[in-house]
Amino acid sequence: MDEEMKGERLAKVMARAGVASRRGAETLIAEGRVTIDGRPVETPATLVTGDEDIRVDGSRLRKPEAPRLWRYHKPSGLVTTHKDPQGRQTVFDNLPTDLPRVLSVGRLDLTTEGLLLLTNDGGLSRLLELPSTGWKRRYRVRAYGRLAGGSLGRLSEGLTVEGVRYGPIQAKLDRRQGDNLWLTVAIAEGKNREVRAICRHLGLTVNRLIRVSYGPFQLGHLAEGEVEEVPRKQLIEQVGRRHAASLGLIAGR
């Protein structure tokens, strides 16, 4: 009997139910916080069929819903985490109460504004974060300082900053505003604080950072703090039918 007939891996089922990412689900299992039919689970590779009584911290795992995706205009001053040890306000504290439990697709740091994608499905979150999608993250950047001639053009070759290698970067100067510059920067990798590190390398200090797009999904005219769902048809078109089928968005071939 093959694995598909036996069931699905528990960590994958938990991710699809929106409990956590697949890696987060594995952590919950390792911490002994997940039970099946009253018994603690020992490995995230455990196969389940959906008929079991699966519980996380005593709460029964709900049946996975069809994957959904939302665009959210994140304000500055919120952290992209469900719980913050420093007690700061989080993105998830400020979402509409009628939204289901969601995960973020990647993160934006505390003072970065703009487009943050949210989903109820851990598998979809993981798919949209994969570098293999080739999707660019585009930012508007206000920074203090002066640019050396030709420095933006050289970013297209990639560069190494403090031992970290960054791939090709698209950047252009939009305008000058007093002692500040406005730039548009597009990156494909989304490494931690990448835009700030690159600007610092160029002698610029970022004082405002706004993500305006993530792949094909745009911030557009979404007001600060507003959430809007991506239509199912558009989501299927953007992830492709093969991935849509594997996520349960459409029937498999």
- CATH topology title of the largest domain: Alpha-Beta Plaits
The radius of gyration computed from the alpha-carbon positions, rounded to a whole number of angstroms, is 21 Å
CATH architecture of the largest domain: 2-Layer Sandwich
Output the CATH homologous superfamily of the largest domain. Answer: Pseudouridine synthase I, catalytic domain, N-terminal subdomain
The percentage helix is 10-25%
In total, the number of domains comes to 3
Distance between the termini: 21 Å
Order of helices and strands: HEHHEEEEEEEEHEHEEEEHEEEHH
Structural class: alpha+beta
Oligomer: single chain
Structure summarized in a few sentences:
One of its GO terms (molecular function) is RNA binding. The chain is α+β, with helices and mostly antiparallel strands. The protein has helices at 3-6, 10-16, 22-30, 122-129, 151-154, 194-201, 232-239, 241-246; strands at residues 8-9, 34-36, 39-40, 47-48, 54-56, 59-60, 69-74, 103-104, 112-119, 137-144, 159-161, 164-166, 170-177, 180-187, 205-214, 217-218, 227-229.
